[in-house]
Fold:
Amino acid sequence: MNCPVERTFADGQPHYGEESGVKKDGTVAHWIVRTSPIRNAHGEIVAAMEMSLDITERKQLEDKLEKSEKKYHEIFNNIPNPVFVLDFQNFEIIDCNESVKAVYGYEKDDVLSRSFLDLFLAGERDRYASKIQPGAELTRVKHINQSGLPIFVNIRISPAEYPGKKVLLVTTSDITKRLETEQQLIQASKMATLGEMATGVAHELNQPLSVIKTASSSFIKKMNQNEPIKGEILLSMLTKVDNNVDRATKIINHMRQFSRKSDMDLEKVQVNEVLEKAFEIFSQQLKLRGIEVVWNIEKALPRINADPSRLEQVFINLLLNARDAIEEKWKAQEVAPGDKQIVLKTYCDGQHVVCEISDTGPGVPEALADKIFEPFFTTKEFGKGTGLGLSISYGIVKECGGHIRVVPHEPEGARFILTFRLPNGG
Ligand SMILES: Nc1ncnc2c1ncn2[C@@H]1O[C@H](COP(=O)(O)OP(=O)(O)OP(=O)(O)O)[C@@H](O)[C@H]1O
Ligand SMILES: [Mg+2]
Structure:
């Protein structure tokens, strides 16, 4: 059927075909044939010439290639993370794997030929356009899925060759669940801290309340005795009442602000101010326990990029740990002045703002120096510590571009050192 020789005899034209057959040794062979007519002096076709070219090897290679392409396509599709192939210049999505559907909800056809930037929030596209480049790693990026809901992803971008053109290979991993869990943990630990703060706040509120009480009692007494109250005394007392109401309001607002659930919000922060705010709540409590606090502060500290309310949580955790460590060490010992001490030190070393919190507790054994930052590690008795304080502090400091470590094995107590890189331009 379809024999090129017969067709050449029939129409006098050259023909072409591909044929397969079995060789003498039983293996399958493939060849291409070309035919052309041979004419006599009158122009009649008297013969046909057939040339065959063995292409068995090429056929086998093609088969292999197809299988191998299939294999890699399978792998590409079965990678659990979404993978996008982007045009190098305009970030158009040329190809993507099946995991895109699972994570983003989009069918492949929905995203092909669209720009990868369409997955970003409308207001952030310009900003990210310049960051999409070979070798880039973008963390905690907000993408919008098919239902219009935000998801958080980490993105890795690498250069690659696609048949005939340069492309970007983009892998994203969905970290929404992880972030949600982290948020819940942070909030849980914050609530635990808030419980501790309540005691401190009670002490703090006592003072303004007693001023107000003194003033009101004195007025009542004078009124009962029909004694006139001089205008200037009235004014001075009411001013005191007013000031102390303000003070109480400030303390309450501070608590409210602290307990609010908030996304990480980086802004320019003066570490000293945050440290003072964290300390404010515990000042009375520490005083009552005979713990002296020494301030060793560099006044003109440059600002760093951080979330002030989260950073305050870190300092509160560290202060509470210092308080517990000191109590632990000195509970059964004779105490001399200066024995129970927390030293707060801040300084700038040119590239970093450094904050040190030292105490005169038992210190941290060398073997535990890393372990204490692990979640749920605690040496405190059951019901007292959750072991979350330091692990959450570690995460927060890292998010603020900083680092926290403990200097182990100091006989005089523990020293926690927090280092924050200065933002560009100081
Ligand atoms: N200043 C310190 N001195 C000595 N040991 C410390 C100090 N700070 C922390 N540690 C050790 O690290 C452990 C973990 O601290 P972390 O703040 O993470 O949890 P916790 O204080 O035990 O509990 P939580 O803070 O959740 O109430 C503590 O149990 C303690 O053994
Ligand atoms: Mg703690």
Summary: The chain has a mean pLDDT of 90. The pocket of adenosine-5'-triphosphate (ligand 1) is lined by residues 192, 317, 321-322, 325, 359, 361-364, 372, 377-380, 385-391, 414 (CB under 6 Å). Residues 176-224 form the longest helix (49 residues).
